[in-house]
Fold each of these.
Amino acid sequence: MRNSVSFGDGIYKSTDGGKNWTHLGLKETEHIARVLVSPLDSNTAWVCAVGHQAATQRGAWCLPD
């Protein structure tokens, strides 16, 4: 079995069941390990951005920022 790694360009949000998506940022992270949505406010999420070694957008982020 071959190992593979893919990467993206940030984090997106949909408010209509996935018909449309809005880019929220973190384009340079490439790899996002976890997203936690606030149980008190669905417009707030914490993102664990692993990124690549030279990425400037690594660490824990709170969206919206």
Amino acid sequence: MDERTCNLVWPVLLFAEERLLLEGDKPLRLGSRAFDILVFLIERAGEVVGKEELIARVWPQFSSKRPT
């Protein structure tokens, strides 16, 4: 494995900075908003994420909160 940051979400690999999701060596297509939600939830794994916090991160233009 190289030095890129990678999250293993079995059975796929997620490279957030490159916006790349792989199943084995096959890239998976995922819409940009869905990708943003997936990355955010992985970053917060094991935590409860509130609706307002998710909206602030993924849809900042519709939120009264600042993204964290």
Amino acid sequence: MHPRWLPYATPGTPELIEALAPLVQNNDALLMANHGVVTYGQDLLTAFFRMETVEHFAQVSLVTEMLGKQSLASGGDVEKLLAARAPLRHRHGVTGQSRMPSHIRRPGPAARQHHT
């Protein structure tokens, strides 16, 4: 799971809905500028565990970045991990297909500068 980055949109507006709508079906989590992370699922427990997963990955990412040892997985490695996860999802009754972007999207320098 890698959250998809979204630019800022005003809460409660059609602008925000338009930014979210096309991404909800193919992503488990969205990282919204100036809002934070949004996760969702077929039930509350699924959404909760997805948030826990995002928080875990954020902690790992922070520590590896601080240590100067961060190494991002290639697209091929990510696809292998998703394939390995499929039988576990089936065994535990998780329906639907979660997809990850074929490339890792990180906020550009302007977005990072804005949040520092």
